Amino acid sequence: MNKKNKIELPKEKREEMILKIKNYFLNERDEELGDLASIMIFEFITEELAAEFYNQGVYDSYKYMNDRCEDLLSIQKY
Asked: How far apart are CA 48 and CA 6, in angstroms?
């Protein structure tokens, strides 16, 4: 992902998400991840995967709004 399309998060949200990664590995895999490993996983997700989730959200919103606009046309008076 180029710099222009990079998803930016507030520092507090970033730290919260990194902590969730650490907790996931501890609870689900019984592995204690250090700060560096957790940050690297977080950066991989945000740089390589997040755009796909974002794009799916945009598409889902578009589809939802398009369906609602079709519903709006059904109330026309003839």
From this structure: 10
